[in-house]
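Q: Hi! First time doing this. I have a protein sequence and I read that you can turn it into a structure. Is that right? Here it is:
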Amino acid sequence: MKQFWQELKYAFYVIVHPFDGFWCIKREGKGSIRVANFIVFMLLITSVLSKQCTSFAFNLTDKDALNIFKECLLVILPIALWCVAGWSITTLMDGEGKPRDIYISCVYSTLPLILLNLPLVPITHMLSLDEGSLYALVQGAAILWTAFLLFIATMTVHQYTIGKTILMILLMILGMALIIFLVLLFFVLIQQLINFIYVMYKEFSLRFM
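A: Yes, that's right. Below is the predicted 3D structure, encoded as structure tokens:
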């Protein structure tokens, strides 16, 4: 347990000192898969609490329509896509990051989303609608902080220049979109195949049975 807290403490160090933090993840093997998994779990908790417990004045979601499976997808899928697309593309573009480094650095970069958005849930019950700009400011700060950390993580883990990092991130986003397209296409084809088999079975049943 003590080791876990030490590893978690390092995740907080990374978001404050990203250059040194991500460098040590790459070169010294620091960072922890189990801490990264814990952060993903906390992201899910934060997402659910934000949609269920945020004050109605700032909550536009339908609480009765909350789907845990959907929330898991909304948290896990972007991380998985970023890691898969990142590893696939950077491998072709002389990137030095290993899958472990990419996953840990990606997940550690999302820690501000928890640190800023989770305390924001009870705070919304003390804010008036006129103070909504503060709510939007905190959410925007969490997104910008995370985006900055992802940029530094990509640049440091793969040893890219600033210009090449920007290019790689754009290619990674395109790669993520391509993966989504291919997966959707696969499921559409599978669905059509199942429908075809069903139609053939019905036709066979009507003629020979």
